[in-house]
Design brief:
Blueprint: H1 10-19, H2 23-32, H3 48-60, H4 67-78, H5 83-86, H6 109-114, E1 134-139, H7 145-156, E2 162-163, H8 165-168, H9 175-185, E3 186-193, H10 195-198, H11 201-213, E4 222-226, H12 234-237, E5 242-243, H13 251-266
Helix pairs in contact: 1-3, 3-13
């Protein structure tokens, strides 16, 4: 498994969120497999699944060597009756395959009982109650529905749950109610930033609602994704955006979107696997050092001490 493939699958994320649904037990498990305490994500008390999604982003960045298998092995040692923890290969996608677009069902009640954990409370790694139901709500102008669908497809393919009006607004549904529910039950709002978006007063209310929920920006609840060469003004213009302008529709755009979303969740970008180029300039050592006297190169070899 390569570094970019070292991540928990959908069923594993749900199992960890169900069984390790409290910060002390989750921190104990993570530190046991090599996580630095300073790198363990913050905790949203009503939502363990969000916490484990952030852990998954760190696994993708290579924070711990072979982190997925180490976590599953440590969890299986504590809860040997849990079928998810004890069979890591059963839930592993085929080599080179994308992570599942729809996470499998959470661990069963029997698994939780055998593991010694109660059923999760509403909103704690589940979609019940008033807890978050989606990781992201995609806010977009009608002209940018194609971009919104593409963003939704990429994020769902990385195990995120996404609210997209084009999918949720079915016959008989009331548009205003669907929007209110999306804003209230989504952890973050993605803005498809374009000229159409900036020109539409109606969709401006979407990002303003997300701003109101996190005015200091500490939770990064508002994530603009720029798809046209435009500049936002005012409050929206002060938020760092993910820039897809000029990228192709293939791997480059997908990888950038996932990397930048994961960086927003964890609060920092992953350390690059290859060193950056040296920013200074120096002459090639193969050419030899410059002669210090008059700027010319020294002779190829030393002169005879007795003269020519």
């Amino acid at each position: 498994m390569t570094q970019s493939e070292d991540f928990l699958t959908g069923v594993e994320l749900n199992a960890f969120a169900d069984v390790y649904a409290e910060l002390p037990s989750a921190r104990r498990l993570l530190t046991s497999v090599g996580f630095s305490p300073s790198r363990i994500p913050g905790w949203a008390a009503s939502d363990s699944l969000s916490f484990w999604h952030e852990v998954n982003a760190l696994l993708r960045s290579g924070i711990v060597q072979d982190g997925r298998r180490q976590l599953l092995a440590a969890a299986a040692a504590e809860y040997p009756a849990n079928r998810v923890f004890g069979h890591p290969d059963a839930a592993l996608p085929a080599a080179g395959a994308a992570s599942p677009t729809t996470p499998p069902s959470p661990a069963s009640q029997a698994d939780r009982t055998a593991a010694g954990r109660p059923s999760p409370t509403p909103g704690m790694g589940s979609s019940g109650g008033d807890g978050p139901r989606w990781d992201f709500h995609v806010s977009y102008a009608e002209a940018d529905e194609g971009w919104a669908r593409w963003i939704d497809w990429v994020l769902e393919g990385a195990d995120f749950k996404v609210h997209l009006k084009a999918r949720e607004l079915v016959a008989g549904a009331r548009a205003v109610q669907v929007l209110q529910e999306a804003i209230r039950l989504s952890r973050r709002t993605i803005v498809v930033l374009s000229s159409s978006y900036l020109a539409s007063p109606r969709v401006q209310a979407h990002w303003q609602a997300a701003w109101d929920s996190d005015p200091a920006g500490t939770e990064r609840a508002l994530l603009p994704v720029r798809v046209e060469d435009v500049r936002a003004e005012g409050l929206l213009g002060g938020i760092t955006y993910i820039d897809l302008v000029g990228l192709d529709a293939g791997t480059a755009g997908q990888r950038l979107l996932i990397d930048e979303v994961n960086a927003s969740l964890t609060g920092r970008r992953a350390r690059p696997s290859a060193p950056p180029p040296f920013p200074g300039s120096s002459p090639s050592l193969a050419a030899g050092p410059p002669f210090p006297g008059n700027g010319t190169r020294p002779p190829a070899g030393p002169s005879h001490p007795g003269g020519s």
